Amino acid sequence: MPFSLLDRAAVSRTLSQIAERPGDLADAYFERVEEVELAGGGRAPWIRVRREEGLAVRLVRGGRTWLASRDEISPAAFADAVRRVARALPSASYSEPRLPVAPWEGPPAASELADFPSAVARAVRDQRVAFPTDLTVRRHRRWVQAVAGPLVPEPEREEFYSVTAELPWGRYGALLPRLDGAAAAAVAGALVERFRGRGASPPEPFRGVLVLGPAAAAVLLHEAVAHSLEADVLAASGDPELAVGVRLGPETLSVLDDPGTAPEGVRRRTDDEGREVRRRWLLQDGQVLQPLADARWAMASEVLFPGAGRRGGRHVPPGPRSTHLELTPGELDDEELMAGAEGGLWAAEAERGALDPLSGVFRLDLPLARRIRGGGAADPVGPSRLTGRIADLLPAVAGIGATARAAGAGWCAKGGRKLPVWATCPALRLEGVEVAAWG
Amino acid sequence: MSRPERAEPGPALAATLRALRAGGFEEAEVYAKSGRSRRLELGPGGPVAGFAQERGWMVRASGARASFAASGSGEPEPGGPWPEPDGEPFRLPDPAAAEPWSAPEDLDAPLVGESEGMRLLESLGTALATELPGARLTSAALEDGAAEHALASSRGVEARWRGRLAALRVEAAAPAGRGKPPATAAIYLAEREARRFHPAALARRLADRLAVTAAGAEASLDRGELLLAPAVGARLLAGLLPLLVGPDATALVAELRDRRGRIASSELTVIDDGRLPGGALAAPCDGEGVPTRAVTLLEEGEHRQPLLAWHQARSAGTAAAGGARASGCSRRASWRDLPAPGPTHLYVRPRRGISAGSLLAGLARGYYLLDAAGAGRFDLPGDRFELPVCGFAVAGGRAVAPVSRALLCGGIGALLRGIQAVARDLAFLPLDGMIGAPSLLAGGLELRPTGG
To answer: Are strands A397-400 and A428-437 parallel, antiparallel or unpaired?
Structure first.
C-alpha cells in the first residue's frame, strides 16, 4: 500500500489549522493510479502504461468550496495546497508533514491482459461463429487515502478491468471485476449476440411492454434512480431534502446503493472523502428514503447522510455518486416476465442512458433487442431508444425477476467525471413505455 | 523557411532519451507538460474555486521489433522502469523546416483571478436575468490555464512551446409556460484567455436561445433560403470533417465531384491553420514537434487536399493523397494521451465587407437559424445529414416567429453546393479542435419538425 507511511496525524493537524471556524470542512486526498492497456488491432504501441499520483486539499466554508491539487505528493506540495485554500490573511506558513510514498513496484506487467483476447476468441468459436474482435483490454488500479479533519481512515485500493471491442457493426464495452473464464464467456456472449443481430431493422415506434435483462435494468436504474437521487441533481430543481418520502415507483421497487457489497476488488469501506460507506436505501417500497449525498451536502442537513462522495480525480472536487446499485429481486421467472407481451421487446443490454435533471426526461439507448413472440425472445430488432419522464417511467415497472446477478457495470461520465459503477440486478418488466428507432 | 530554433528540452528529458537510446530503442520520444489552471464554478453546490498544478510526461519508444508507450506524473526517470515492449515497431518524424514564429503576447498574461473569474460568472447570470426575466444560470464553469510543453526525440526533434486556453461552459434555464418543462440552453466556448469572454454578449446569446426554445413553434416542412449563424455553420463543418481530414477523405470527396470537378460552391474556402493569429490553440508545432502551418483544404469549391499528419501522407503516398503535403496537426489532449491527427483551427474563410445583417436583410422568405441543439447525424456515404436547430422564420428581411424543435436536413453535396454567400463574422467553437464558420447563406436544404 503506497500510503501506509504517510504521517496522517500530522496531515490532520495541519488541516485543523485551516478549518478554523465552526462548520468548516477541510480534507486532504492522496491518490495513486495505474492503468495498463493492451490495444488490439495491431495498432502501435501495443502496450501502454500510465502511472500517476498526486494530492488535493479542500476547504468548505459557508457554502463555498476551495480546492488545490498537485500532480505530486511531497511535503512542500501539500503545504502549498493548504496555503492556497486557507482563508487566513495574510497567508500563513503551514507545517510540512512527512509524506513518504512507497515507490512504484518494478516494471508494469499484466500478463492476464495478454491472455484475455484469445480466451474471448475461443469462447466465440465455441458458439460456432467467427468474426474479427478488435479487443482492447485495460487493468485499472487506484489507491486512495483520504484525511478529513480528525477522521483518518485506512487507505483504500481498487482493481478492475475494462474491455472494448471495435466490431464492424458497432462498439462494445464492459467493466469486469476480474479476467477469468466466466468473464471471457460473458464478453463472447455479448459479442455473438451483436453479431447475430447485425443488420436487424430498428423497430417501428410503439407503446407497450419492454423487458430489460439484468444488465439493461442496471443502466436504467443508474440513470433513473441513482442520478435522479443525487443531492446535487435534486438541488438543480429544488431542495434535496424534500425528495425524501416521495413515491417514485410501485411498492415492489426497492433499490439501494452499497459500496460495501460491490464486487471484490472494488469493494469499499470508506468513500473518497474518508466517510464510512453505508447500505443506503434510495428507494424502499417505491418511496425515496435516502438520497445520495457527500460530506458537503450532508454537513448542513439532518436528512442527508455522507458516505457517497466520489472523485473523478484529484483535480476535481468530490460529488455524490452511486457505487454499487442493488435492486431487490421479485418473484418472476423469464417466462412470467414476458407473458402476455406479444410484440413487445426484450433487451439484454443498454448502451447508455441520460437524464435531464431539469425536465426529468430520461432516455435509454438499446443497441439490440429481440421481439417477444410466443412468450419468448425471438427475432432480433435493431437499435432502439426508450424515452420518457422519470415520473412516468418508474411507475411503469410491472414486474421484477427473481434472480439477481452482477450485471450492468459501466462508466458513468456525469459532468465529464468518469467513474466506474457496478450493479447487482434481476430483470425488469416495464409496461406502457414508448420505444422508437435509434441511430 | 528555416529550421525551427533548437530548444533544449530540459535535463530530465534529455537523460531519459539518452537512456532509451542506450537501451536499444532507435525510435524514442520524450514529451513533458507542466501547467497550472484556475477553475471557477457556480452550481447547485455553491461556488467552487479550484487551482490545479499539473506535471506529467509521456514516452514512446520502439526498437527494431517491438514498442511501448508509458506516461506518468512528475518527471520521467531515465531508468523507467519501462514495460516489456510488445507493440509493432514504429518510426518518429524527422526535424522539419518551419516558418518563423512569434509567441503571442497574451501568453504571459496572468491567469484569471478568483474574484475576477467569479465576478465574470456572476455578471453573466445577472445579465441573463436582465435580458430575459425569469431566466437563470443552472451551472457555469470557467477554466483558465497555461502550460509549457517540451519534446525531444531520437530523430533530433527538439521543441519547447507554450499554450494558454480558457474554456467556458454555461447552462441556463427559463420558464416555458404552465405544464411545460423549463426551456434550457447551453454554450461551450474556448478562447486563449478568460478575459476574452464578454458576459453581456454571452447573456444575449443565451437569452435568444432560451426565448426561442420556450416560445418557438415546431417547424413545419419547408425549403426556403436559410441564413446559418456561425454556431450552426461550425456544427455543420464539424460533421463534414471526414471529407476534409485524414487519408480516407480523398475517396469520400470523389463521390461528390460535379462535372467540373468541384465539390462545393465557389463561395466556400476551408482552411486549417495550427498557428492562426489569435487562435486559441495557436502554436509553432504540433504534439510531435512538427511545425504547424496554414493548409487550404477546399478553395473556392475545389478540393485541394485533406489535412494529413506526416505519417499519414507518408503511408498513403503523396500521389494517392492527391499530392497532399503534410502539416503539423497531431494533437495531444494531455500528457496522458498519445498524439492523434486532427484539426487545430479549421474554418470557413470569411468574406470581408459582408455582414450577417446584410444577408438577413436580403432574405425575402426563409429562416435565420441561430444555434444547433446537438451534434447532428452525418451519413456521408448515404449523402444525407440532419442537425437539430432553432431560430426564427424570416419574411422581408425580418424575424417574424421563433422556431424550435427543427431539423435542418438535406444532402451533403447539396449543402456544400448550396452556399450562396459568406459573411465576415467568423467565430469558433471547441468541437473536434476549434471549428469556425461565419454566417452562411444557404439554399437547397430542408427544415423539418423533430417529431419530439
So the answer is: antiparallel
* HSE-up of residue B139 (Cα within 13 Å, Cβ side): 16
Minimum distance, in Å, between the CA of residue A12 and any CA atom of chain B: 21
The partner residue sitting opposite B72, judged by closest CB among A52, A316, A359, is: A52
Q: Look at A69 and B66 and tell me if their CB atoms are within 8 Å.
A: no
**How far apart (Å, rounded) are the C-alpha atoms in residues B432 and B19?**
36
The distance of B185 to chain A (nearest Cα, Å) reads: 11
Residues of A in contact with B44 (CB under 8 A): 232-233, 235-236
Omega within 30 of 0 (cis) for the link into B430: no
pLDDT tens digits for range A65-108: 999 999 999 999 999 999 999 997 666 788 889 999 999 988 87
Question: Do B43 and A232 touch, CB atoms closer than 8 A?
Answer: yes
Shortest distance, CA B59 to any CA of chain A (angstroms) = 10
pLDDT at B374 over 50: yes
Task: Check A47 against B138: CB less than 8 A apart.
Answer: no
Number of CB pairs, chain A paired with chain B, less than 8 A apart: 142
Q: Could you say which residues from 134 to 153 on chain B have a Cβ atom under 8 Å away from some Cβ of chain A?
A: 138-139
> Which grid cell sits at A393?
417511467
Helix (H, G, I), strand (E, B) or coil at B200: helix
| The total number of residues written for chain A in this structure | 439
Spatial contact of B162 and B200, defined as CB atoms under 8 Å apart: no
pLDDT band at B56 (very low <50, low <70, confident <90, very high): very high
Instruction: Write down the ipTM of this complex.
Output: 0.92
Half-sphere exposure of A42 (CA within 13 A, CB side): 1
Q: Rounded to an integer, what distance in angstroms lies between the CA atom of residue A368 and that of residue A216?
A: 11
Query: pLDDT higher for B316 or B243?
Result: B243
* Structure confidence at residue A114 (pLDDT): 87
Decide: residue B133, CB within 10 A, 0-12 exposed, 13-18 middle, 19+ buried: exposed
Burial class (CB in 10 A: 0-12, 13-18, 19+), A2: buried
Report CB contact under 8 Å: A49, B69.
yes
Report pTM. Answer: 0.93
Q: Which of residues 301-360 of A touch B (CB under 8 A)?
A: 315-317, 319, 356, 358-360
pLDDT averaged over every residue in chain A: 93
> Which residue among B48, B66, B184 places its CB closest to the CB of A67?
B48
Provide the β-strand partners of residue B144.
Answer: B38, B166
User: If you measure CA to CA, which chain B residue comes closest to A320?
Assistant: B45
Q: Which three cell numbers stand for residue B212?
A: 426561442
Q: What is the pLDDT of residues A310-364, one digit of tens each?
A: 999 999 999 999 999 999 999 999 999 999 999 999 999 999 888 888 888 889 9
Q: Given a cut of 80, is residue A248 above it in pLDDT?
A: yes
Q: How many CB atoms lie within 10 A of CB B147?
A: 18
What is the C-alpha separation between B178 and B200, in angstroms, rounded? 29
Cell of residue B239, nine digits = 460533421
In whole angstroms, what is the distance from residue A139 CA to residue A163 CA? 9
For chain A, say whether B374 makes contact (Cβ under 8 Å): no
Range list of H helices, A314-431 = 334-337, 390-393
Residue B389 to residue B218: CA distance in whole angstroms? 11
- Whether omega before A100 lies within 30 degrees of 0, making that bond cis, reads no
Burial of B299 (0-12, 13-18, 19+ CB in 10 A): middle
> Running DSSP on this structure, what letter comes out for residue A154?
P
Q: Average of pLDDT values for A121-140? A: 92
- CA-CA distance, A72 to B74, in Å (whole number)? 6
What is the C-alpha to C-alpha distance for residues B66 and B423, in angstroms, rounded to an integer?
52
Residue A241: Cβ within 10 Å count = 18
Residues from chain B that touch A43, judged by Cβ atoms under 8 A, are 87-88
